[in-house]
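Q: What residues go here?
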């Protein structure tokens, strides 16, 4: 599988519509890849909280409309990073309240159809930002795409190993993690991306934003890590494209050669809290 990670710079001097058009052009330029990955909330910026409500859209809204033809033209599966989703229907009732908004990833097929969505399960910000403005997803999500089973997670989810074990139990062999991670915690980002790969003997495609928005300098340093924990590619701090060939069969080979996942001890009794 050839994967291209587009480490997009999100800067305040570029409008959301301009960025959508520019990113669609970058996606079109990835013909020859099997899977293209974008970062978290790249249209608006993961820390541009004040713009979330104004820029919220449906899963088939302007971001999908800009990118679906680009995926089709390039003939690639496109993990389009995430958008601020305004949910319609019973979950949010389209009423405009905080309960309507989700941090939602889109997976688009080479035919330009929406094949999967994933609503970020762990919201970042503790008692502010995303954690108060958005609702949490609750579904562990995988997708068959580009010859692999993709396990979907988003940014802060990386800190929750149990989610990734859940994805492995659901058959994932390649994790795809779009992010908008601050530069000040870059060491956590690179460490956690490798840890999730090596402990789960899975590929990790971790695609972050570059640039500075809402006063938060972004980490960059997108990572591709193999199931043995080796870093196959790592970005710098500017916008760039990382293209890597993955051998998806290396996942089962690694799990057979070093079968640590089979040694899990599930269901041990928990001692009472002191
Ligand atoms: N957008 C995010 O989820 C940021 C996560 C983060 O900054 C961290 O976990 O640290």
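A:
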């Amino acid at each position: 599988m050839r994967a291209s990670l587009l480490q997009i710079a999100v800067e305040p001097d570029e409008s959301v519509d301009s960025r959508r058009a520019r990113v669609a052009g970058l996606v079109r330029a990835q013909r020859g890849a099997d899977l293209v990955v974008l970062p978290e909330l790249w249209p608006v910026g993961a820390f541009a909280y004040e713009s979330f409500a104004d820029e919220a859209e449906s899963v088939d809204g302007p971001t999908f409309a800009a990118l679906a033809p680009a995926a089709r033209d390039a003939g690639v599966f496109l993990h389009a990073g995430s958008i601020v989703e305004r949910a319609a229907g019973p979950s949010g009732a389209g009423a405009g309240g905080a309960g309507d908004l989700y941090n939602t990833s889109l997976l688009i097929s080479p035919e330009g159809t929406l094949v999967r969505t994933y609503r970020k399960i762990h919201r970042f910000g503790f008692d502010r930002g995303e954690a108060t403005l958005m609702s949490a997803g609750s579904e562990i999500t995988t997708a068959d795409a580009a010859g692999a089973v993709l396990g979907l997670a988003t940014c802060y989810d990386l800190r929750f190993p149990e989610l990734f074990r859940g994805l492995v139990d659901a058959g994932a062999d390649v994790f795809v993690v779009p992010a908008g991670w601050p530069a000040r915690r870059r060491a956590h980002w690179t460490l956690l991306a490798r840890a999730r790969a090596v402990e789960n003997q899975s590929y990790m495609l971790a695609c972050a934003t570059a640039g500075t928005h809402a006063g938060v300098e972004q980490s960059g340093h997108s990572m591709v890590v193999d199931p043995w924990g080796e870093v196959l590619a790592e970005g710098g701090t500017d916008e760039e494209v990382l293209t890597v060939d993955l051998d998806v069969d290396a996942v089962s080979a690694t799990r057979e050669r070093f079968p640590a996942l089979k040694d899990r001890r599930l269901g041990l009794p928990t001692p009472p809290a002191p």
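A: Context that may help when evaluating the design: Residues 40, 46, 124, 155-156, 159, 180-182, 185, 188 surround LYUYDEPV (CB under 6 Å). Residues 92-97 have pLDDT under 50 and may be disordered.
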